[in-house]
Amino acid sequence: MKQELQRTRMLIGDEGLDRLMDSKVCLLGLGGVGGAAFEALVRGGVGIVVAIDNDIVTISNLNRQTIATYSTIGKPKVIAALERAEDMNRHCQVIPVEAFLTPENMGELIPEDTDYVIDAIDTVSAKLAAIEFCKSKGIRIISAMGTGNKLDPSMLKVMDINETSMCPLAKVMRRELKKRGVTSLKVVASLEKPMEPRSFDEDLDGPSSLLKSKRRTPGSTSFVPPVAGMLMASVVIRELLGIYE
């Protein structure tokens, strides 16, 4: 392991590497945000990564998701992630869990001996359930807010959810968490005003036919969601090392 992580070792030493190897991080979601966080955790030296996702890789994932390639299309994301991890850091134990997170199964899927949870889920109900579960068990958690319809990754910040603005998802989460008695949550959120996404229909008047605005499916880029994932992984690793400020 020391050979693969020699450059990291120069910054955190053997004690830091050992501390990371003894850590377990549970990653919820392997999309644009979660996939990048997964790669950073595996390359970063975390010993055990529990990756939970129920989706398969599709062609629309290619523009932003680290695990998405032409060769992985059709594969379960957890399997694509596991195979990628084996090519990045063989000392990291990846536990793939192909399951859809719900409020009912949260306690079964998130191990109670987890040191940190990264929430990169899209579904509000599952996000809320994961946060409530972690808070009740004393497990540290960091949650991703919306990264769709954004173009400037420099506007992404680590903050408490009460400091968020310009994020429709964060607004909903703040309201719902307050109802549940959760008054503080570490998040990565963007301060950029969301763009209005456009929708194109490939079958009507050619590939560039502009239709009505699409509100349900956000637009995305190759750089905003992954940067959010990298930020989340950096917070987790620094906190595991005891050096987060």
TrEMBL record:
GO molecular function, one term: tRNA threonylcarbamoyladenosine dehydratase
Name of the protein in its database record: MoeB
Location of the THIF-type NAD/FAD binding fold domain: 6-243
Gene Ontology BP, a term: cyclic threonylcarbamoyladenosine biosynthetic process
Disordered: annotated segments: 197-220
InterPro entries: ThiF/MoeB/HesA, ThiF_NAD_FAD-bd, Ubiquitin-activating_enz
Pfam family, one: ThiF
Native species: Youngiibacter fragilis 232.1
Upper lineage: Bacteria, Bacillati, Bacillota, Clostridia, Eubacteriales
Domain of life: Bacteria
